[in-house]
C-alpha cells in the first residue's frame, strides 16, 4: 500500500562553510503520514541539520521542503519559523523554564489564540494524562528526572495537537529503565492521535523497536532507507550494519579462523547472531560482561579474535569462563560495500 506523504524535501542542501564538508547535500526524502520515521547516522552526519530543515528553522542553500505539498516558507517570508502544524522538541530542554510548574510548562505550549478558552483546562489535562504526568502537575520542571522532563517537553509540544512532531534524540536524558515506557507511549500517541513523528537517534535499540521507516545519513547524504526489518536483515552498507546492531568486524583471515571462508574484505557478525551452545570443541574465553538490562553482552576471545555475543541467561557466564558458540549468520562486505547474504556457520 502506498503511504500518504506529509513532509518531503527535494534536493535539499545546507552547508555551513560553503563546501560539502558539513551539513547535508542534495537530500530528497519523503516522510509518511501517521508513522514514525527515524533519521539515523553517525555523529556529524547531518541528522539535526535535516530535522531543522524540515521544521523550517534552517533555510536550505538549495532545494525545497514541502509540508503537504505546500512549500515551507523561508525565514524572510514568514513571521515565525516552522509551519504551525509542526512542533520540534530539541535536545537538553533548551527552551524550558526550570522554575515553572509542570502544569504551566505544558500550558505554555498553547498558542495565544488557544489560551483562556473554555477548552484550555481540558487540553492541559489531556496532554498531561497522555504522557502519564498528571500527578507531577505542581512540581517545578527543574526538579524532575530526565525521563519526566522529556515527558513534559513532549506534552507541551503535543498540547495543540500538531500534525508533525519532530524529536531530536528524545531518549538521550532518559534513564534506560524508563526508555521503553516512553517509547511505548509515543507509539500509542502516534496511533491514537494520528501524529507523524520524525526522530533523530543514534541508538539501535530505540530505532529498531520504534520506527516504521529509517533514513540512513552518512556525511550529509542519504545512503539507505527502508523499514527497520529490511535494513537490519539486509543492510546494503557496512555503515548501516554498524549503526543498527551491536556487532563485530573481522578481516577475511580472522573470519577463516571462525570457519567462515570469504574473499571479501570485511565480515560483520551481529552480537545477536552469535549463539552460545553446549559443546566441547572450540572454547572461547569470556573477557568482559556488559550489563544491558534484561540481557548481557559478552566480549569473547579466542586466538586473538574478539567477538560480541548477546546472552539472555544472565550471570551464567562470568568473566574468565569458557563457552562454545555458533555463528548463525553474518554479512560480507567488499570494496563497494554491497553485501553477500551468508549461510549459517558453526564454529
Ligand atoms: N551551526 C553550525 N555551524 C557550523 N557547523 C555546523 C553547525 N551545525 C552543524 N554543523 C556541522 O555540520 C555537520 C552536521 O551536523 P549535525 O549536527 O547536523 O549532525 P548530527 O548527525 O546531528 O550530529 P550529532 O549526532 O553529533 O548531533 C557537522 O560536521 C557539524 O559540525
TrEMBL record:
Please state every residue range assigned to the domain named ABC transporter: 7-244
Q: Which domain of life is it from?
A: Bacteria
- Transport found in the keyword field: yes
- Note the PROSITE patterns from the entry: ABC_TRANSPORTER_1 (PS00211), ABC_TRANSPORTER_2 (PS50893)
Q: Which InterPro entries does this chain map to?
A: AAA+_ATPase (IPR003593), ABC_SmlMolc_Importer (IPR050093), ABC_transporter-like_ATP-bd (IPR003439), ABC_transporter-like_CS (IPR017871), P-loop_NTPase (IPR027417)
Keyword Calcium tagged? no
Q: Which GO terms describe its molecular function?
A: ATP binding; ATP hydrolysis activity
Keywords (alphabetical) are:
ATP-binding, Nucleotide-binding, Transport
PANTHER family the record matches: SPERMIDINE/PUTRESCINE IMPORT ATP-BINDING PROTEIN POTA, SPERMIDINE_PUTRESCINE IMPORT ATP-BINDING PROTEIN POTA
* Descriptive protein name: ABC-type Fe3+/spermidine/putrescine transport system ATPase subunit
Species source reads Mucilaginibacter frigoritolerans
Amino acid at each position: 500500500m502506498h503511504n500518504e506523504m506529509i513532509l518531503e524535501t527535494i534536493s535539499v542542501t545546507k552547508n555551513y562553510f560553503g563546501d560539502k564538508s558539513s551539513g547535508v547535500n542534495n537530500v530528497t526524502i519523503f516522510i509518511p503520514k501517521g508513522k514514525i520515521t527515524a533519521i539515523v547516522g553517525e555523529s556529524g552526519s547531518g541528522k539535526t541539520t535535516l530535522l531543522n530543515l524540515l521544521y523550517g528553522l534552517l533555510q536550505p542553500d538549495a532545494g525545497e521542503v514541502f509540508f503537504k505539498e505546500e512549500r515551507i516558507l523561508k525565514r524572510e517570508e514568514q513571521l515565525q519559523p516552522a509551519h504551525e502544524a509542526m512542533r520540534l522538541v530539541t535536545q537538553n530542554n533548551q527552551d524550558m523554564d526550570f522554575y515553572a510548574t509542570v502544569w504551566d510548562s505544558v500550558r505554555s505550549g498553547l498558542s495565544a489564540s488557544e489560551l483562556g478558552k473554555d477548552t484550555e483546562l481540558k487540553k492541559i489535562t489531556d496532554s498531561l494524562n497522555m504522557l502519564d504526568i498528571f500527578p507531577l502537575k505542581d512540581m517545578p520542571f527543574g526538579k524532575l528526572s530526565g525521563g519526566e522532563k522529556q515527558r513534559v517537553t513532549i506534552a507541551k509540544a503535543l498540547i495543540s495537537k500538531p500534525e508533525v512532531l519532530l524529536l531530536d534524540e528524545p531518549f538521550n536524558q532518559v534513564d534506560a529503565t524508563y526508555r521503553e515506557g516512553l517509547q511505548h507511549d509515543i507509539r500509542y500517541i502516534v496511533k491514537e492521535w494520528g501524529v507523524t513523528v520524525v526522530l533523530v537517534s543514534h541508538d539501535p535499540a530505540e530505532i529498531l523497536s520504534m520506527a516504521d521507516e529509517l533514513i540512513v545519513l552518512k556525511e550529509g547524504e542519504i545512503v539507505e532507507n527502508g523499514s527497520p526489518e529490511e535494513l537490519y536483515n539486509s543492510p546494503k552498507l557496512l555503515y548501516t550494519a554498524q549503526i543498527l546492531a551491536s556487532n563485530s568486524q573481522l578481516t577475511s583471515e580472522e573470519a577463516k579462523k571462525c570457519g567462515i571462508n570469504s574473499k571479501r574484505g570485511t565480515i560483520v557478525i551481529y552480537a545477536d547472531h552469535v549463539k552460545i551452545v553446549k559443546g566441547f570443541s572450540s572454547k572461547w574465553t569470556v573477557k568482559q560482561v556488559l550489563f544491558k538490562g534484561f540481557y548481557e553482552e559478552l566480549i569473547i576471545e579466542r586466538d586473538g579474535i574478539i567477538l560480541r555475543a548477546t546472552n539472555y541467561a544472565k550471570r551464567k557466564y562470568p568473566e574468565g569462563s569458557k563457552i562454545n558458540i555458533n555463528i548463525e549468520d553474518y554479512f560480507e562486505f567488499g570494496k563497494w560495500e554491497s553485501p553477500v547474504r551468508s549461510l549459517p556457520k558453526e564454529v
